[in-house]
Design a protein that fits this description.
With about 200 residues, this protein is mainly α. The protein has nine helices and no strands. It has a domain of about 90 residues: Phosphotransferase system, lactose/cellobiose-type IIA subunit (Methane Monooxygenase Hydroxylase, Chain G, domain 1), CATH 1.20.58.
Length: about 200
């Protein structure tokens, strides 16, 4: 029985791609002995069942289809045609039927999952693009503000009128504390200093 928890999609992006993976590279010759191919097909089928049980839909689909494709090639051989009953008994009709049935169900499930994944990927791309544009817009605005402030400072230093701001606005932007720059002299401290100068003896 297939697992309720399905493994993440990582093998392909469509059922069409999986079908290509299921194709067998070496075609079986008409005069070839079908037995070795049948033995290989049985191993492929068992692995497909194992992957199906653990919820690996992609691998299970590929292997079920590969099993089916091997069997299709086997039926084209001369020896199979000469003794269909014998070779059919070796292959096992139950396994062949189950492979076809599971491949069809997996195909339906995978099509839905690939479609959902594609939609999620597109949505994520749109969101990332939106965030990138917002960031760029914010950085552009900050750069413009800094540029305007620097221009206003330059205008103030040269005795020109600023674009639309007073000198206080410019200082505020730069976070300059006026009191720390233009702090008044402490009168008492100043008087003490003067007194000290007066009482100093010159030798």
């Amino acid at each position: 029985m297939p697992s309720a928890k399905k493994k993440e999609l990582n093998l392909a992006k469509s059922v069409g791609e999986l079908n290509k993976m299921a194709q067998i590279q070496d075609k079986i010759g008409k005069n070839a002995n079908p037995k070795p191919w049948i033995n290989s097909a049985e191993k492929v089928y068992k692995k497909a069942v194992d992957d199906d049980v653990i919820g690996d839909e992609e691998n299970a689909f590929v292997l079920y289809m590969r099993f089916f494709n091997i069997m299709q090639e086997v039926t084209k051989t001369t020896k199979y045609q000469a003794d269909k009953k014998y070779y059919s008994s070796i292959i096992g009709r139950t396994a062949l039927n189950k492979a076809i049935e599971r491949a069809e169900k997996l195909s339906e499930s995978l099509r839905e999952r690939y479609k959902k994944l594609e939609e999620e990927t597109k949505a994520a791309a749109i969101e990332n693009d939106r965030k990138a544009k917002e960031k760029e817009k914010s950085e552009t605005a900050n750069t413009k503000n800094v540029s305007n402030t620097l221009q206003d400072i330059d205008d103030l230093l040269n005795g020109k009128k600023t674009s639309s701001q007073t000198s206080a606005d410019v200082y505020k932007k730069l976070h300059i504390n006026h009191s720390s720059i233009l702090s008044p002299i402490d009168k008492k401290s100043d008087e003490k200093g003067i007194c000290k100068l007066k009482t100093r003896t010159v030798h």
